[in-house]
Structure to design on (304 residues):
């Protein structure tokens, strides 16, 4: 006869490895912070919405206020505006110790709108500008191979809980995202990364929201999600330890690559001043399946 504890453990083992409950919410979230923007641009606020018996943080639970700020590669807010890479002294960027016996790796990161970079499970940098103006970051860290790169990515939102912002003649225009990163160990963002969406909005009706259990947001025409304060949103629980080297991402899909034209890099010198280091070196824009509807996205890659 099995003991109660054994039966309980058996029950736990029977759960799928990634039990990420889907929750559907409708309507806007309540702001729970002031505007956290440091230099104007769109307001950076976090919100909470209650749905499915849970209180869900939007656009995502982040370390924006507590994490180590990444060093500016280009940031109008701080007056760091190099015209190209020759004006950047990478040797002056502080080195974060991930593994004391590792090698020093540097990297350039452009994320629309917000990123957190974890290396071998350790938070190395958070994006100092969570929304706008568009900025870019340079990182250095000491890490031992194999190196697991993991980014939390957020397409920030002005209308909390709705996945929209004012723009293009609408108060409820859905924004889009995109990540490009290039590291000195040869790692580049491309289709070899894994990606998964955890917050999908705006969705115009509940039936469409329910279909998103498979997270196939690419099958939904974002132009037809015409809704305002009554939009639906789909949330998935983020698994503990998603950034750690040991995490099993075999169930995640390959990242989707988007062209620079689709992401819209023109007029964004925080990217274009380093175009040779980004797309010129093979660092492509990646995201999960919908650049527009997926607003909280996790991506990972382990390099030997
Ligand atoms: Ca940013
Ligand atoms: Ca969006």
């Amino acid at each position: 006869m099995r003991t109660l504890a054994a039966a309980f453990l058996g029950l736990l083992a029977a759960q799928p490895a990634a039990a990420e409950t889907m929750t559907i919410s409708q309507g806007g979230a309540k702001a729970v912070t002031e505007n956290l923007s440091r230099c104007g641009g769109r307001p950076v606020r976090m919100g909470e919405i209650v749905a499915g018996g849970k209180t869900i943080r939007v656009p995502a639970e982040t370390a924006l206020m507590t994490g180590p700020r990444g060093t500016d590669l280009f940031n109008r807010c701080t007056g760091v505006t190099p015209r190209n890479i020759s004006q950047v002294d990478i040797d002056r960027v502080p080195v974060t110790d991930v593994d004391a016996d590792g090698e020093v790796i540097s990297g350039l990161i452009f994320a629309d709108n917000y990123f957190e970079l974890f290396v071998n499970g350790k938070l190395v940098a958070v994006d100092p500008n969570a929304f706008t103006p568009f900025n870019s970051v340079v990182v250095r860290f000491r890490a031992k191979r194999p190196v697991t790169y993991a980014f939390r990515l957020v397409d920030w939102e002005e209308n909390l809980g709705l996945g929209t912002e004012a723009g293009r003649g609408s108060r409820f225009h859905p924004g889009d995202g995109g990540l490009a990163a290039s590291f000195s160990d040869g790692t580049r963002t491309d289709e070899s990364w894994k990606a998964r969406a955890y917050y999908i909005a705006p969705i115009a009706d509940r039936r469409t929201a329910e279909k998103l259990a498979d997270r196939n947001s690419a099958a939904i025409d974002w132009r037809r999600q015409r809704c305002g304060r009554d939009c639906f949103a789909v949330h998935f629980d983020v698994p503990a330890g998603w950034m750690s080297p040991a995490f099993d991402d075999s169930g995640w899909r390959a990242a989707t690559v988007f062209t620079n034209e689709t992401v819209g890099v023109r007029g964004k010198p925080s990217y274009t001043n380093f175009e040779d280091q980004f797309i010129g070196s093979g660092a492509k824009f990646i995201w999960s399946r919908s650049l527009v509807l997926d607003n909280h996205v996790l991506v990972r890659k382990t390099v030997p």
About this structure: The chain has a mean pLDDT of 94. Residues 155, 163, 174-176, 292, 295 surround calcium ion (ligand 2) (CB under 6 Å). The longest strand covers residues 194-203. The chain has one domain: 19-303.
